[in-house]
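Attaching the record inline, Q. Sequence:
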Amino acid sequence: MSNGGEQAPEAIFQLLADEYARRILLAADREPQTAKELSRFCDASLATVYRRVSTLEEHDLVDEHSTVDADGSHRRVFETTLEELHVELSDGDLDLSVATRDELADTFTSLWTDIRDST
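Structure, as predicted:
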């Protein structure tokens, strides 16, 4: 699913109803976390963390990065991309839109470019 697009409300609501998914979003929002760190924070098995992270990634709510430690070892870390979640009730339907950090940065860059080009 694309960032900022409308998403299937049922899938997102079901995902956010899951305690592990919510805890992963909160932990990875503070700073990027490894799966092992998320496992400790959530008091969940690594398999559970990887399943939830995979689902969160499918909905563009979490992003995976590779980092290099001071000793040269590589680590995969996960970071929350969710910035805002908007729910609208319209004509008996629930509409859901998700704003991610990348989308907000792109919007700011576009706005700044427009201002610069108009002067």
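The mean pLDDT is 85. Residues 6-118 form a domain with the Arc Repressor Mutant, subunit A fold (CATH 1.10.10.10).

More tomorrow.
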